Amino acid sequence: MASQGRRILPGLEGTDPDRPPPPLTSDLHVEIFLRVGSPADLARASAACISFRRLISDPGFLRRYRSIHPPLHLGFLSYAEEGFQPVEAPHPNAAVARAVARAADFSFGFVPFPIKRCRCRQAWHLRDARDGRVLLECRSITIVDGEECLDLVVCDPVFRRYLMLPPITDELLASVELQNQHMCYSSSSFIPSGDMEETSFSVICWVFSGTKLVVFFFSSSSGHWTVGTSTSWNDLGFQEEVDSLSSCQCVHGCFYWKVNYINKLLKLDMNTMELSAHDLPPDHEDEDIVIAESGEGKVAMFSQVGYDTSVKYYNLLQNSSEKSHEWHMRSTIRLPDQYTSECYINGPAEGYIFLAGTPKDEDATHPAFFSLEIKSLKIEGVSGRTSDFQCDVPYFGFPPSMSSRRIQ
């Protein structure tokens, strides 16, 4: 019988109120830690307690945690010599970003150069970053026959691991009527993966000449390249030679490229491997665009027209045949009032695009970086910049204690 005056909560009748509750079991610990919203707080908990550290480092736990909580925006990888610039205070991820900067090697000094006798000095150049991996490219010209070589490597800067990708063979190029010298008109990117714990990854490489565009795919599971699709510029409706492509983004299972100096957008449907060309809104021939997901399976576009302090936000409307594309401008988003003269856009990544603006203060010569959350259109300061913003790639990840090896 309970002591007089002591109230027993429903469901606890028959228990001894003076006895301490039993210790939490490991499965309850898992459920508690899965609800910790900040990976930084979770990493600190693991550093403070050995038993917590064992639990949090378990691959099964990490897989479940990453399926619930998105990775943190930690900074930007640059084509320039500084390599990595972490986000800065008062950004909430600043402390974690500094820890990642100390732990990782963003100079990629652990990646060897291909063993070739070349006319030019070899260097790795940044191409893409996704899921903690970084895609680098090295172009060189051999001394013997003057042939240009394209080498790609996927690396993990936190654990200093890398995987050199095999070259696209002459036989594979010949199968789509291309030759090695056409490889100078090419670039590459990661293909988004739905499972962040998997060590496998895929890469897309697009190659074009004066007459055609060819898309190749690499899978780390198979270890070799395959031809995805091949289409002539005439079949896509272009009457003039295409000089270059930019703004490669993957949205809802489709890749999009902006055709430079032409008011056109290329689309590759990954399900059908069909390439198609579509009109952009007027006056976008020379402008920067970002294609992004806008929720409910819709496609959005952010564009910066001219040297302006605002970004235009469009939705893509499609009819029932999904062959006709019409852009509908929804809003104009302005930078904070203290910035003027120019606005550059970059991205997208993990539900954000990124903006750079030049301060009105004449003494501030470098632009400042902002993130724009696509869902809410909220702008947040990220850092100042000292390099060319348009060449930077946003880097997302977790604290080193929560980062799993992306390359085996």
UniProtKB/TrEMBL annotation:
Residue ranges occupied by any F-box protein AT5G49610-like beta-propeller domain in the UniProt entry: 126-337
Segments of this protein annotated with the region Disordered: 1-23
Name under which the protein is recorded: F-box protein AT5G49610-like beta-propeller domain-containing protein
Organism per entry: Urochloa decumbens
